[in-house]
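Thread amino acids onto this structure.
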């Protein structure tokens, strides 16, 4: 996932520069997902993305992700958000909502605070198999949804959304965005077998998953919330550093303090 275009103004449903169809979006940017809308070639592309990425997971993805992905049973076709949201809500209270793509921060944070995870409804084109600019359903569903079944992560993401709604001013929101970026998008956890990915940006990207977990040049750092919130990040290309937590409970305990005291 690369450069993020400027987000559409709330009033501008056409959202020039973003590829999703925002014209059918409700006021909270939700769109209906009709699984019947996907063409057979799109389901085939989902299967190809799923097979290629899941082959890379052993020894690189955290065990909780591998177990949770398996229980989602979503290898064969583009997943239906309602069905999977039903099951997830029983596990950690999270539901899944369809969105046309990137949505304005305020709407995004309100959904996270309400335990509604926005999932883009379109799938990347065949030409974007290895590199995509905006998050598509493969990044959002394959990358993010399995970890929302892990209670400490589920609680952290909801607390992050609530903290962003409380935050006053751009600097405070920027610090919080970094916390989300270096954990939920690009976080690493230490397991008995070594470093493992739990961030969606890693778990949905073949090249960066290998780089972040295996490269001695990856810039591994011990997770420290203050250092994370002071570290700017890149949205096109590999990160220059990756933060490592000892456990998801440790992440949530330290981040909860940072979220509570965020200005
Ligand atoms: N919208 N659909 C969607 N998905 C995101 O990950 C997202 C977004 N809007 C804003 C946003 N992310 C970022 O500003 C936050 O991650 C901080
Ligand atoms: Fe993401």
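Threaded sequence (263 positions):
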């Amino acid at each position: 996932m690369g450069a993020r275009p400027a987000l559409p103004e709330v009033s501008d449903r056409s959202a020039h520069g973003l590829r999703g169809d925002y014209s059918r979006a409700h006021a909270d940017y939700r769109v209906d997902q009709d699984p019947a809308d996907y063409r057979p070639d799109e389901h085939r592309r989902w299967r190809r993305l799923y097979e290629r990425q899941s082959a890379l997971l052993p020894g690189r993805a955290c065990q909780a992700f591998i177990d949770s992905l398996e229980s989602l049973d979503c290898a064969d076709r583009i997943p239906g958000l309602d069905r999977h949201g039903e099951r997830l809500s029983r596990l950690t209270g999270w539901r899944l909502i369809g969105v046309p793509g990137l949505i304005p921060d305020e709407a995004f944070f309100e959904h996270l605070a309400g335990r509604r995870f926005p999932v883009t409804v379109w799938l990347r084109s065949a030409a974007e198999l290895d590199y995509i600019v905006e998050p598509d359903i493969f990044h959002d569903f394959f990358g993010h949804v399995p970890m929302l079944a892990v209670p400490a992560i589920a609680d952290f993401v909801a607390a992050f959304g609530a903290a962003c709604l409380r935050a006053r001013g751009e600097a405070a929101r920027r610090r919080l965005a970094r916390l989300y970026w270096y954990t939920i998008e690009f976080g690493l956890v230490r397991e008995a077998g070594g470093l493992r990915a739990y961030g969606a940006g890693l778990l949905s990207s073949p090249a960066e998953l290998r780089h972040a977990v295996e490269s001695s040049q990856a810039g591994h750092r011990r997770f420290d919330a203050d250092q994370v919130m002071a570290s700017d990040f890149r949205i096109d290309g590999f990160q220059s550093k990756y933060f490592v937590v000892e456990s998801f409970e440790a992440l949530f305990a330290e981040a909860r303090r940072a979220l509570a005291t965020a200005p």
